[in-house]
Amino acid sequence: MKETLLFFMQGIPEMTGVIALCFAIAKVQIKWIQTLLVGVGAAILSYTIQSLSFFFGFHTFIILFLVMLFVARVGQISIFKSFFVTSIVTIVLGMLEFSINSLYFWLSGDTPHDTVSNETFWAMLGMPQAIIMVFLAIIVSIIIKPDKKGFE
Fold first, then answer.
1. From CA 82, how far away is CA 97, in angstroms rounded?
2. pTM over 0.85
3. Which residue range forms the structural domain that includes residue 128?
């Protein structure tokens, strides 16, 4: 139960940030309530797929593919533009995760093995990247003005 709660505590803001940043880069207006609800659904689906014991990372591939389709449909943009936007956001998320984890390991002297074995702390270590993704979406949507409505 604790593991599930920790997954959602980090997964919901992260998925919401991923979807919102995709919309912002694609110049689609972000409607936060709907984006949050889709983020919750994506986190639930991600957890379900991860629990089915497919190969490592399969849930990430499936969720990003679905985010790509979702952004294309809701944002009324081409699948190619959606693929490009989703790829950029995936790279940003990966760079954030790598940077935050590397900084923590460098500052603390802990090893990845020690940190991963503490489930609570490992989930909390993912929170900064989730929060940064949401802030990036807000900043990008201010800089790049949306020209599409979305969620209509």
1. 22
2. yes
3. 2-143
62 in any annotated domain: yes
Size (the chain), residues: 152
**Cβ atoms of 26 and 85 closer than 8 Å:** yes
In a domain, 151, yes or no: no
Which residues of the chain fall short of a pLDDT of 70? 55, 150-152
DSSP letter at 55 equals S
Number of domains in the chain: 1
Whether 140 contacts 25, CB under 8 Å: yes
Q: Map residue 118 onto helix, strand or coil.
A: coil
The amino acid at residue 133 is M
Give the separation between CA 93 and CA 137, rounded to whole angstroms: 12
Specify whether the CB–CB gap between 46 and 74 falls below 8 A: no
* Distance separating alpha carbons of residues 149 and 152, to the nearest angstrom: 7
